[in-house]
Amino acid sequence: MRRHRAGTLARSPSTLPLAVMLGVAVVDAATGPEYNLLPVYAAGPALASARGTVRTVLTMGAVAVVLCLLFAWKADRFGELRMQVALLAIGYVTLAAVYATHARRKTERRLVDVQEVAKTLEDVLFAPVPPAIGPVRIGASYISASRATRVGGDLYEAMPTPDGVRLLVADVQGKGLDTVRVAAVVLNAFREAGPELDDLADVGHRIETALDRRTDGQRFVTGILAQISPTGQLVLLNRGHPAPLLLTRDNGVDFVDSIEPAPPFGLTALAGPDDQQDSVTRRTLHPGDRLLFYTDGLSEARDGEGRFYPVGERAAPLLTGGSPDEALARLRTDVATFTGTPPDDDSALLLLEFAGRSAD
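Request: output the structure for the sequence above.
Response:
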């Protein structure tokens, strides 16, 4: 209880202004009447405007006036011009601080409202992925490089379908709020088409159509559409995205590369007629196999010498053992150690483990 009260006192908006005015009083008492420190007490209400309320500012102004009068009387200058000038200065500073505090508090309330709306939208658009869907255990991790938002242009989603688990991992080109808007378009298109359409290529076409209709066409999206059946049949449609990393139960490590390259979503119009953009890659998963989907925030993370994070070399040993979420936590720690700096790009990770039976 004492620690809590001490912490509350340290965080009080009146602590610093009071300490400064008391410090001025100590100096004023030590230097004697030949110095004119009376106007300096105006620092109290000025400092209170940084964090306090209007009431706090007015209280600090009143304290400043009392100290000014007290030390003017002590120095035998009560009623002199110096005291009147000091009181006038304290009054003007207090009124200015009241105005600044009112404007700050108004801006803060607006910011809180905007943040609440943004948080609600983020919760709706980027809902947490369940820890298990059918035969697949899932771990997810997201880090946004932006301090203003919890999410950015990277995205993932997983959902159950009659044919197993269907998922999307994607990365919108660029940064900023526009990337979040494009990411929302991609997510909504996948959520509508994922359970409805049988073919992954058709789901990809639906995402393309949504981007054409609802964005300005200035951003492209790399992404992977994947499906895992209850028997472990993996189908991948890669649209210009980093290849996922497959960790087999016998400690094998392999990148699941596409048979034919395909352009990212949003760049299909630039592809030639002979491009096999709808070709899929197929693998068979066995119980215990794990599959890491990631965005370039992982593969392009750099150390102090500019070297990229070696996903196959460093990530693979960290992703075995424990739950998928625990494995991703180890990977995040290793990336932070490797770079030595805060992330400068969004990063989305999705680790799937095929259980061979219902993991729910």
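Residues 2-122 form one domain.
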